[in-house]
Amino acid sequence: MLKVRQLKVPVLRNSEEYLKECIAKKLHIQIKDVKNFTISRQSVDARDKKNVLFIYEIIVSLDCEEKILKKFESANILKYEKEEYKDPVKGKEKLNEQIVIVGSGPAGLFAALLLAENGYKPVIIERGEKIEDRVLRVESFWENGDLNLNSNVQFGEGGAGTFSDGKLNTLVNDKFFRGKKILETFVKYGAPKDILYLQKPHVGTDILRQVIVNMRKDIIKMGGEFFYNNCLTDLIIEDNKLKAIEINNYKKIDCSNLILAIGHSARDTFEMLFRKSIEMSSKSFAVGIRIEHLQEKISYSQYGDFAKFLSPASYKLTYTTKSGRGIYSFCMCPGGYVVNASSEEKRLAINGMSNYKRDSLNANSALVVSITPNDFGTRPLDGIEFQRKLEEKAYLIGKGKIPLQLYKDYVNNKISNNFGSFKTEMKGDYHFSNLNEIFPDYINNSLKEAILVFGKKIKGFDNDDTILTGIESRTSSPVRILRDANFESNIKGIYPSGEGAGYAGGIMTAAIDGIKVAEALIKKYSSFE
């Protein structure tokens, strides 16, 4: 088979037959000689708004491959090397108890799946509810404000990414094809097949829920166990080794191997780990706002007249302020919703969410300002306290609802009293507020400076009636739980993993990290009998 890159197809001529014609033309062969092909990558080139193109990378099977390679081999025509994830070779050390995983977000679930596939029968402990009950709980919260501290947008089966856009792109150098395994796993359990080749794949929160259910069912069939509404509350450590864990402040479970996939919002768990002398450090993260525009305006700005033939457009923006602050868009949700993502009483946090079709009227994205321990303190838990103070202000000025302000009024330090040409698309309630009261001046000034600049890149980005909401504070963990080359913490038997431990920044990177930790355990131990 051959890999053929940089096949350019006009949007209006996009079809399987025309793609076959393009392959034949590129390889100087007849169309009938193109036996079969699969798409390995598809992206959109919209630099010329009058001629928007799909750019394809194709895997094609031919009878005359060697002849073509000798004639044309280049960076765009080359022999296809099979890209396949390979399970690690099992170790020989006896495993006396099942491996316990705390957290069933992407890191925890994919660690559990790999362990289960290899015969290790993991036990998954989750403080929140299974996804079917969690969805009802979250929808009830959005409707009536009744917050459950253990089952919400941040906590519960699937993790925080369940109520997001479900984006599956990553910039990780993936020479072991863990990312491919993850995408294939998503498809196996119900995700659309196009995530295998789209440049910016996404599942959507609606489809992701069923994928998680199907993954769980298979893990259980392979001997894994799930325990919901069970929160890790203590560690029993002897001679610098983990011996047992405590659940819900009373139940003890023998455990000598624990994967900590707790997520970035498990603040009470971070505090417990700190008390138990688990080594950790503060780390940089980012905070800011959500910004909403009409999706049709964003799509037109990105694609011009071709927007009606393409999926809702996204964007990625970065800027460094005159003072040296980094500002960037984060978790951009085409056709999405701003959602109340709070997890603590009298503190308010938000996120963005899209369904698979991305069919709401608005686009939203986080605009966040990079901050470092120099801004909030170098002690391990100082970043958490910084987040909490901002979330308390957001809750206060929003009267328990999502604080909302139009861009013009944010600039003028004035509370809005009505929407402009469009309204918010939101899960949860809002209250017109002054977002300036949440942040210190260096964050407010950085955001205002950046939005003006972004308005020159995307037409209408800085319109007066652009909708701003706050606060986006859970971009990544403010804590890193330290681990060695074998993925263990300073306490042997504890394996920090995923976004909460400070080693990931989204669904894909968290899942990849979960696989890495599971691999380390597989290489050490034989299967659980």
Give keywords:
24% strand, 13 helices, 529 residues, 3 domains, single chain, 5-stranded parallel β-sheet, FAD/NAD(P)-binding domain, Alpha-Beta Plaits, 7-stranded mixed β-sheet, alpha/beta
Provide a brief overview of the structure.
With 529 residues, the chain is an alpha/beta fold.
Describe this structure in words.
With 529 residues, the chain is of the alpha/beta class. It folds into three domains: 2-79, 2-Layer Sandwich (Alpha-Beta Plaits), CATH 3.30.70; 100-281 and 478-524, FAD/NAD(P)-binding domain, CATH 3.50.50.60; 284-472, no CATH class. 29% of the residues lie in helices and 24% in strands. The protein is built from 13 helices and 24 strands. It has helices at residues 16-27, 65-72, 106-117, 131-144, 178-188, 205-221, 267-275, 295-303, 373-376, 382-397, 407-411, 441-457, 507-524; strands spanning 2-10, 36-45, 53-61, 77-79, 100-102, 123-125, 225-227, 232-238, 241-247, 251-254, 258-260, 280-282, 285-294, 318-320, 326-333, 337-340, 350-353, 362-371, 402-406, 426-427, 430-432, 467-472, 479-481, 494-496. It has a seven-stranded mixed sheet. α3 packs parallel to α13 (507-524). It is globular and about 70 Å long.
